[in-house]
Structure formats: structure tokens, C-alpha cells
Amino acid sequence: MEKSEFLISKMDCPSEESMIRMKLDSIQEIKSLDFDIPNRKLTIYHVGKLREIEKSIDDLNFNSSLLKSESVGSVSFVDSSKEQSKLLWTVLLINFIFFLVEFISGFLSRSMGLVSDSLDMLADALVYGLSLYAVGSTVSKKKNVAKISGYFQLVLALFGFAEVVRRFFGYEQVPDFGTMIIISFLALLANAICLYLLQKSKDKEAHMQASMIFTSNDIVINLGVIAAGFLVYILDSKYPDLIIGTAVFVIVARGAFRILNLAK
Length: 264
Known about the structure:
- There is one protein chain.
- By secondary structure, the protein is α+β, with helices and mostly antiparallel strands.
- It has 2 domains: 2-71, Alpha-Beta Plaits (2-Layer Sandwich), CATH 3.30.70; 81-262, no CATH class.
- It contains 9 helices and 4 strands, in the order βαββαβααααααα.
- Strands 2-3-1-4 form a 4-stranded antiparallel β-sheet, covered by helices on one side.
- A hairpin with a 4-residue loop joins strand 2 (30-36) and strand 3.
- Helix 4 (112-134) packs antiparallel against helix 8.
- The two termini are 28 Å apart.
- The model is unreliable at 203-215 (pLDDT under 50).
């Protein structure tokens, strides 16, 4: 048995963890994956195939590097797949519900920041859904679903960009800053709950959970939309909302390309 430790610089959210799990799912020699998201590290217990494992992780473009690999002899592992599936279902539902809430609220309040954030929530829901589908599925089926989900997410991001451009040059009312702030704050709480649920079974230390929450891109996005809401109020302008919307659509598009990497 070998123990290999990787530094994955761009792994700062549970959705990246799910994508890595899916990417490595077909390598039967892997016996266990131990994620330390706050420190952006992944420890893999495996029997050979180190180069294949390293290449699979590199293909995701998460800026990964092998820190060390050593022989550890025989190691026993506990099967926690049922618990992981239950957690994935929970966070999937939370993300999908808030996708609907933010998407509808975004259009009603004329906020592209909320609409773009809703698509980011949908992107996470897609990744969790792919993780659940991958359990017991063939590699080819998993890749096909990843490809469909990736293109779907990319189309949504392009639609968002087009809508931002239209609103930027056309006449649009100033978004409802109150709705932006309130809904984004609720989404922030939802993301914090998801992160807590995904990490509580791995490490019960409070500072680890807090570190996990505050290093998440999702939390940063929520705070960005809240800040944009205050700027809309202060400046009485639509532009802060369009700027944050554009930034989040870039993140959504980047996530789509990452999902498409799973289909290679």
C-alpha cells in the first residue's frame, strides 16, 4: 500500500472535491481518498498506478503537485459511502432550492448578480448530482452525463453574458438592492450549512470548519453580491450589479470547462 499526498491549489470548495472523486473513480487501485480542503491537500491510499493518478488530477487543471509518496504497509478503511451519499443528497437539494430562489428573485428584482449567483448554485448542484450518479455507473455513462451537464452550464453562462451586455448598453431600471442583499445573505447561510455538513464527519474541530467556510469561493461570491447591493443603493446605479454578474458568469463558465474535462 502506498500513501501519496498532493497539494491542489485551486481546491477550495466541496464541488472541486466531488469533481476529483469522479475523475479518480475509474482507478480501481485507489483504496481511499482523504481530503483536507482548508489546506488544499489530498491524501490517496493506493496500490500502484501513481503516474495515472497524478495525470488524472492534473487533467482537471486545479494547479496540483505531488508532495510526497511513501509505502505504509497494510491499512484498513471504513466504508462510508452510504453516509457520503446522504450528505451529497442533502447539499444537492439545498443548492437546487436556492438556485430556484435566487433565479426567480433575480429576475423579479432585475438583478444579474442574483441570477449569476443562482447559476453558480446550480453548477454545484450539477456536480453533486454527477457524484451521486457516478456511484455504481460505468465510466462511459459518467462521462456522457458530465459532457451534457458541462455544455448545459456553458450555455447558461453564455446566455448570462449576453443578457449583461444587453442591460449594459440598454435602458434598465436600477435593481432592487434590498432583495439583492437579503437573498444573497440567505444564500450565504445555505452555503455555510452545506460546507458544515460536508466537513463535520471529517473533522469536528471548530476552527477547521470555520476555515472551510471562509475559504470557499461560494461564500466570496455571496459577499460580492451583497457588496454590489450596497453599491447599487449608494450610487443609485445598475453597473455594480452588472459587474458582479459578469464576474460570477466567468466563474460559472470556468466550472463548465472543468466539468467537461471529466468527459475526456
